[in-house]
Amino acid sequence: MEPRSSDGVQLLTNSGDNVLRVFNIEIEKNQKEKSGDLKVKSEFDIGEAISYPATCCALMSTRDQPIKIIDTNTGITRAKYKAFDDKEQILTAYSASFNRCGDKIYMGSWERINIFDVQTPGYPIREIKTSPDRKSRDGQKGIISCIDFPLLTSMSTDIFASGSFSGSIAVWDVRKNTNELTWKVKNHLGDGRGITSVQFSPCGNYIFSGARKSNYIGCWDLRNTSKPVTKYRRGCHTQQRMGFVVDHYQKYLISGQHDGKISFFDLCKNNLTEPSFEFEDFVGDVSLHPFIPMLASVSGQRHFDSVLRLEENNEGVESGDSSLRIWDISKLINEI
Hints:
Blueprint: E1 10-14, E2 19-24, E3 38-41, E4 46-51, E5 57-62, E6 67-71, E7 77-81, E8 95-98, E9 104-109, E10 112-117, E11 126-129, E12 144-148, E13 159-164, E14 169-173, E15 183-185, E16 195-200, E17 206-211, E18 216-221, E19 230-233, E20 244-246, E21 252-256, E22 261-266, E23 271-278, E24 283-288, E25 294-299, H1 304-313, E26 324-328, H2 330-334
Antiparallel strand pairs: 1-2, 2-3, 4-5, 5-6, 6-7, 8-9, 9-10, 10-11, 12-13, 13-14, 14-15, 16-17, 17-18, 18-19, 20-21, 21-22, 22-23, 24-25, 25-26
C-alpha cells in the first residue's frame, strides 16, 4: 500500500489485491474508521498511483498496460498513454509521475524514460534512452524504478532525478537535446542494491535515496557529489518498496520501518527524535498533507504462513496489520 495525495482533498492507496482506493479527507475527530469512498479494480498489479496536482484525477500504471488517468470521483478512465520498444511491444511503466506543473507525465521502464504531454493522450513526445545499448556501461542501466522532481521554487521544471534497480541514481536536464545525464551515483551507499525511492529536498540542493533491503537512507549534495553527506539508519529487510518523506520545512525525514515503527529523523541534528508511531506490521510508505500537520501511513505485507494456510483450508486468513492510518503531528510542527 502506498498513500498519495498532492492537493490534500483525497488520499489514494494501492494494495496487493489490485484495487486503487480513494479516501476523501474529512477532518473529523469523532470519525475513527472508514472504508474507501471509491474503489477501482485492476486486472494486474498496480505499480504507481499518483494524484494529479490540484484536481480530482489520478495516474495509474499496471504491468504491460497503458498508463491511465482515472477520475477519482467516478472511477472513469479519462486518458491513456502508452509507449513501445524496438520490437513494437508495449513498455511496462515501472515508475510514473507528473512533473510539478502537471502538464507532462514521465514514465520509467527498462533503460528508457518516456515523456508524455497530458493534453495529448497516446504516444510520448520524447524518449530518453538512459544507456546507449545493452553492452555499454555508460548512462543509467536497468529498470528505472522511481522518478522525482524538485519544487517549482527551487529549480527548473526541466530537471528531474531517477533511480534504477541497478543501484544507480541520476539527475537529468530535458533541455539538453542529447540523452546525457547531468549527475550520477553508480553504487548506492556501496551496497549496490536496487533503488526504490528518490526525493529532492524542499530547497532542491539535496537528494534522499532508499534501496531494497538497505538499512540506510542516503543524503546527497548536488553541489558536491563525490560522497554522501550523511545516511540515516532504518530497518528495511524486505524487497518491497519502503517510502519516506521530507517535511515542507526541511526539518524532519520521516520513514517507516520493518518492525512497524515510524521514525522521525531530525535533519538539523542528524539524529532520531521522538515521537515514534507504531504499527503491528511492516510500514511500507508515509505521506504528508500539503497544508495541514497530518501524516498518512500504510502497513502490511505478504505473510508466507498465511499463504500456506489459505491454500490448505481454501479460505481467507487474516494476518498482520494491513491498514491506512492518519496521524496528528501538530506537536512536531509547532516545535519548528
